[in-house]
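seq:
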Amino acid sequence: CISRQLYSAVKSSNRKKNIPLNTYVSIYSPAYSEQDGAEDGSFMVDHSLEAAELSPEEILIDRENVRNLREQIETALSPLEKKVFDLYMDGMTYQEIARQMKKEPKSIDNALQRIKTKVNKALKK
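struct:
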């Protein structure tokens, strides 16, 4: 039993499926190590956001793309789905939405599944 357990442990450690989880770097880790001497209190996420600054043209194009995507989603959703989508985007849970709309949680879950399908379809266009 012990040798088999050791064999299984070695075999699973050689798998590559958990490498992303085991080697990730948190975006909330300090940007500089203590050896670098820079102790400005900034985090990795701060520097990644600075690098992601867009030009005015790119911002305008992104806004237009978002507007077009919203229009596609709005036209694809039923009135019930629109209401569920708005409440879900406001941060409400399935149960909270069901209570507010006086529906069963399963019908809210079904609506959200349909919404996800329609949004994915709109994103692929």
